[in-house]
Amino acid sequence: MKGIRLVPDKTSIRFVRYGKLSLIVSGLAMLASIVLFFVLDLNYGIDFRGGTLIELRDKGGEADIGALRVKIGKLGLGEVQIQEFGGPSDVLIRIEQQPGGEGKQQRAIAAIKGALGDTVDYRRVEVVGPTVSGELKTSGAIAVFVAMFAVLLYIWFRFEWQFSVGAVAALVHDVTLTIGIFCGLQLEFSLSIIAAILTIVGYSLNDTVVVYDRVRENLRKYKKMALPELLDLSINETLARTILTSVTTLIALGSLYILGGEVIRGFTFAMIWGVLVGTYSSIFIAAPLLLRLGVRRDWSGLGGAKVKDPSQNKEKSPPGGPVERPMPGE
Amino acid sequence: MLHFDRWKVILILAIAACGVIFALPNLFSAKSLENLPDWIPHKQINLGLDLQGGAHLLYEMDQKELVQDWLKTIRGDVRDALRQERIGYRGLAMSPANRTVQVRIRDLEKVPDALKKIRQINESVGGSVFTGAAGNTLNVTDRGEGVIALEITDQGLQHRISAAIEASIETVRRRIDAFGTTEPTIQRQGIDRILVQVPGIDDVARLKQMVGKTGKLEFKLVDPSTTCQEAKDSGRTPPGTEIIESGDGFSSCYLVQSRAMVTGENLVDSQPGFDQQTNEPVVSFRFDTAGGRRFGRVTQTNVGRPFAIILDEKVISAPVIREPILGGSGQISGRFSVQEANDLAVLLRSGALPANLTIIEERTVGASLGADSIAAGEFAGLIGIVFVVAFILFSYGLFGVFANIALAVNIALIIGTLSLLQATLTLPGIAGIVLTIGMAVDANVLIFERIREEARAGKSAIASIDSGYSRAIGTILDANITTFIAAIILFWLGSGPIRGFAVTLSVGIVTSVFTAYTVTRLMVAQWVRMRRPSSVPL
Questions:
Q1: Does B147 lie in the same domain as B85?
Q2: Angle CA(B510)–CA(B467)–CA(A232) in degrees, nearest 5?
Q3: What are the two backbone dihedrals, phi and then psi, of residue B377, each rounded to the nearest 5 degrees?
């Protein structure tokens, strides 16, 4: 019983040739994300902005959002968002942080419960006061930076600094684009999105490390091959794995996104996006960057020249294709 | 790579079997679990509040109030000390902003005496509240011209807050225990916070009311000289009296004597009950000996006058003293419902909180949403697994079967580990498991792709399998350690549901590397030995 090849055995796509293009495209996308961040800003959820969130289900079947809006509008709670949430009887109410300190937040809930009474079932109530929202914001940002730094150190320790910089550049790329899409689509940015971003950090790295591992192996194996070709070879060799793993992960995440319920939809969306961007970046960002950063060629001994400009390396190496290459000794 | 020592085989199988055994209880309902034989583990995964429903309330203690109360006590102590020594003073004042009490001694020659006496307050404060050498709770300084200042030190405040938080936790625990819910968590967080988690509670409003109330009970005589409305209108209250708002339904406020007859500190017990004549719910209480004596004395001399029962600066009832109450016990009737009487009795019994607690974070999930989340998570997980299994089978054929068996073992190991560790499974945690399932195959994919490559390079089946495994392991470790680092950081900085996600993710990483590298390899090795394949079916 043999498996079916999703990715052909022998691919020789010249990824590095698109390196310049992909770096430009990604650079623009990152720029766009940053612009979006400063123009539109993230749509912070109550975790970071403070305020109150109430999810309720109408006991009488379909909820009348218009009527709710009128009832709640009379309470004078400032900015209130009311929207359907997952089904016709489920409603999500977001109330902005009430001025006057921690104690005042509880009054907003009391007011809502007073106004709506027993006609609804309160499925979820979340209140985050000003102190806690500030803390969550800080610790979230710290978490993302610490994660990136820890990973930078690990890669540095395991590889060379060029790999480390390449991997972290790919990470910054992934995180920036994730924040960009959350700004662009104005999706709610909550604490769980930070968790998703950290997972993306781990996943994207996972992908990058697999490619880098192969690059390092090939650097030892083919001492004369030009760096662009070597990178292409490495990416092609790992391509089947990269795609297969992305597909299985996306299958699992897709199922969660569609069937997992409204509460974690934002979380799974971030993750799906992260897997897509992470897969792209490990091929089109992390690898081409190695070329630009210059990697030590001679891995057999100490020292060795660095290849700063690949065009200077005119040594002819065997064309891509595994069978034609010399067999390394066991 | 394809040779396994016998003990290794046994170890691998034992670990897999343990995973299954520890995961098993989760397939049963709590009821049928009781009927299972004893040798089967009974621990199920702990469900987080977001899955089983419940309340998560983070309280912060009001430091200002604590300092204010403390300064009041210090001011009283200074007054007593100076009076006792007959030292004249003026301008005895407290300043909460500077955490200071200040006094000016009239006769400059008496300043050293006063200082000596006041320093003793410091010691007595330090000694009574805190054990050991925590003497520096106050910083007593001579500021010249007869001015003496007592400043609460940082260390002193820290100790005070600590003690207050510990006391509050006990009080809160007594109050929540009255709900009879299973396994509430009440723990200190940081310096001045208390985290209260009550799984499966429905009436969150009542919970909040019970926990958040200070519960300060006072009995004060009503001042008959004027009504509170008149006092309010004139803007002046007779000396030694104060106006207290009322919720008893008879009067909107009462003018009462500032000095309490007795306070809740003298209470030893309180129970809900019914009035024997009117049959309405009441709360009966009993004072300690000192309290009972004082209450008896005051009621004896004030028959026919009303007194106010005040809870947290609000009158709940103002009965008229019909006869001296000498037995040290009494009852409060205030048009309570049965539950209100019950809650009040608990509140009084549990004692007052040292300072007000304010909710700074609340997350409550109803049981119905929790159940929906579990159902949705399980369904999504199941569908995800089915598709991943099919995909792997489709991609790798026979080896895909091996990978899928390993995946099943992996899931059992994750669930078994979570049950064994009694880790909390949250909704993001379920997502973590599903994600791990997607990623778990990664290790197998890495290995299988490597084997394919080796075979393509012209190696024999056994040699390709062998070197496929030995070469992929480095990559597998590198790739998974990075994700593991992210998961650890998530656990370290996250809270609640996020932490649950970090736990399942890291457990999943470890088990998936283990299953891919050992369980699958064991199956492949067995297959190689039985079939002696000439080519790899990949």
A1: yes
A2: 90
A3: -65, -45
If you measure CA to CA, which chain B residue comes closest to A50?
Answer: B361
In a domain, B345, yes or no: yes
Reported as a single tens digit per residue, the pLDDT across B301-352 is 888 889 899 988 889 888 888 888 888 888 888 788 888 888 889 888 888 8
Interface test mutation site (partner A, options B368, B482, B501, B524, max chain A beta carbons within 10 A): B482
Taking the CA of residue B362 and the nearest CA in chain A, the distance in Å comes to 5
- A109-167: per-residue pLDDT in tens? 888 888 888 888 889 999 998 888 888 888 888 888 888 888 888 888 888 888 989 99
Q: Do residues B370 and B228 both lie within one domain?
A: no
Say which of A123, A198, A322 has its CB closest to residue B490: A198
Q: Are residues B291 and B352 in the same domain?
A: yes
* Contact by Cβ (8 Å): B436, B512: yes
Q: Taking CB atoms and an 8 Å cut-off, how many pairs form between chains A and B?
A: 256
What's the rounded Cα separation, in Å, for the pair B319 and B311? Answer: 14
pLDDT confidence of B135, banded at 50, 70, 90? Answer: low
Question: Residue B1: what pLDDT?
Answer: 65
Q: Are residues B12 and B111 in the same domain?
A: no
Q: What is the pLDDT of residue A106?
A: 85
Structural domain boundaries enclosing B106: 63-159
Q: Does domain A15-42+133-315 have CATH number 3.40.50.720?
A: no
Q: Among partner residues B391, B437, B490, which is closest to A143 by beta-carbon distance?
A: B490
CA B126 from centre of chain: 29
Distance from CA of B56 to the nearest CA of A (A): 9
Best interface-test mutation with B: which of A57, A90, A248 has the largest number of B CBs within 10 A? A248
Q: Does A102 touch chain B (CB under 8 A)?
A: yes
CB-nearest partner of B400 from A3, A102, A194: A3
Question: What average pLDDT is seen over chain A?
Answer: 84
Give the integer Cα–Cα distance in Å for A4 and B392: 10
Say whether A203 and B458 touch across the interface (CB within 8 A).
no
Of B325, B348, B363, the position where a domain reaches its end is B363
CA distance B127 to chain A (A): 34
Contact A121 B366 (CB under 8 A): yes
Strands (E), B48-88: 54-61
B513 lies in a domain?
Answer: yes
A132–B360 CB contact, under 8 Å: yes
Q: Examine residue B424 and state whether it is found in any structural domain, yes or no.
A: yes
Tell whether B409 and B520 lie within a shared domain.
Answer: yes
One fold for both A15-42+133-315 and A51-128? Answer: no
CATH of domain A51-128: 3.30.70.3400
Point out which residues pair with B310 in neighbouring strands. Answer: B218, B315
Distance from CA of A312 to the nearest CA of B (A): 31
Question: In terms of domains, do B447 and B527 share one?
Answer: yes
Query: Which residue, of B329, B363, B397, is where some domain finishes?
Result: B363
Place of tokens 């049965």: B338
**What 8-state DSSP symbol labels residue B222?**
B
How does pLDDT run across B214-234, given as a tens digit for each residue?
888 999 998 888 888 888 888
Radius of gyration of chain B (CA): 35
Q: Using CB atoms, which residue from A154, A248, A267 is nearest to B428?
A: A267
Instruction: Assess if residue B231 is contained within a domain.
Output: yes
Q: For residue A127, which of B19, B332, B205 has the smallest C-alpha distance?
A: B205
Tally of domains within chain B: 3
Query: Given the structure tokens 């809502």, which residue do they identify?
Result: A112
All residues of chain A having their beta carbon less than 8 Å from the beta carbon of residue B379 are 259
Decide if B384 and A256 are in contact by the 8 Å CB cutoff. yes
Residues B280 and B297 in one domain: yes
CB within 8 Å: A195 and B498: yes
Residue A174 contacts residue A277 (beta carbons within 8 Å): yes
pLDDT in tens, chain A (330 residues): 667 777 787 788 888 888 889 999 999 999 999 999 999 999 998 889 899 999 999 888 888 888 888 888 888 888 888 988 888 889 999 999 888 877 788 888 888 888 888 888 889 999 998 888 888 888 888 888 888 888 888 888 888 888 989 998 999 999 999 999 999 999 999 888 988 888 888 888 888 989 999 999 999 888 888 888 999 999 999 998 999 999 999 999 999 999 988 888 999 999 999 999 999 999 999 988 888 888 777 665 444 344 444 444 444 444 444 443 444 433
* C-alpha gyration radius of chain A: 25
Check whether residue B313 and residue B390 sit in a common domain: no
